[in-house]
Amino acid sequence: MNGGFVIFTVHYFCRYISRFSRLVDTAKPLTFMVLNLMKGIL
Asked: 13-37 pLDDT, tens per residue?
């Protein structure tokens, strides 16, 4: 039971990291776009 809990935790942690890295990959271009828009406005 303890080993299964460890495996479950590691699996959930890896899934969370992959989701977070995907979120960062989609947020990077958006951040650049917003920065360029602010530069254009200012």
From this structure: 999 999 999 999 999 999 999 999 9
- Give the whole-angstrom CA distance, residue 20 versus residue 25: 9
Task: For tokens 């254009």, name the residue.
Answer: 40
Give me the DSSP letters along 1-42.
-HHHHHHHHHHHHHHHHHHHHHHHHHHHHHHHHHHHHHHHH-
How far apart CA 7 and CA 11 sit, in angstroms, is: 6
Residue 32: Cβ within 10 Å count: 10
